Structures are given as structure tokens and as C-alpha cells.
Amino acid sequence: MVDVPNCPKCNSEYTYEDGSLFVCPECAYEWNLLEKETDNSEDKKIFKDANGNILNDGDSVTVIKDLKVKGSSLVVKIGTKVKNIRLVEGDHDIDCKIDGIGAMQLKSEFVKKI
Hints:
It comes from Metabacillus sediminilitoris. Residues 4-32 form the Protein YjdM N-terminal domain. It holds the Pfam family YjdM. This is Protein YjdM. The chain has one helix at 33-39, and strands spanning 16-18, 21-23, 30-31, 61-63, 67-68, 75-76, 81-82, 86-87, 94-98, 102-106, 111-113. The strands form 4 sheets. A 3-stranded antiparallel beta sheet has the order 1-2-3. A 3-stranded antiparallel beta sheet has the order 7-4-11, with no helix packed on it. It has a 3-stranded antiparallel beta sheet with strand order 8-9-10, with no helix packed on it. The protein is built from 1 helix and 11 strands; from the N terminus they run βββαββββββββ. The chain is mostly beta strands.
């Protein structure tokens, strides 16, 4: 007989096996032990600059191309240094503040690590 684990959600001991899933009758939670083991290995996205260097939160970068700021007449010039970047998921990978412009979102393909 398979040793059935307690429910990971409510810690109930009355769980049972239903095919390849374990089921908790008290909170109706269903899980697969194999999925739980693979969830422990976090798959974080790796952000790289234009040269292939790995970027981390808090890094300083330099803009490698003139970038027009959408909705205004401002331009972020080539060579602009950006300090203390924050990496985020989405279309634009980098949240930052640029002196003279303010809060911006940049794509990692247009910067290089200092």
C-alpha cells in the first residue's frame, strides 16, 4: 500500500489516491506528487544585455542606441548611464529612473552592462 501524504493545503490526514492524483475530501484540493517535486526547482527568466552578459537587480547599464520616449519629444541618448535597474517580467525587461527624464521601462536588448 502506498503511503498517502497529508494534504499540503489543510494538512488533513484523510487524503486518498485517485489515479495519478491525491485528493483531500475536506478542502477538495487535488495534487500530484511529481508536480510538487518539480515546483521546487524555480525556473527564473535570465535577462541578458545586448552583449550577452547576465543582468541582475541593482546593476548599472549604458544605453547603446538613441531611444525615443513614446508620447513625448524626449530622446534617451546613446551612452546614457542608468543606475540601480530593476528587472521585471513583460515586454520591457527593465524598470529604472533616468536623470532628466524620470521613470522609464527599457528593453534589455538596448543596454549593455557597465
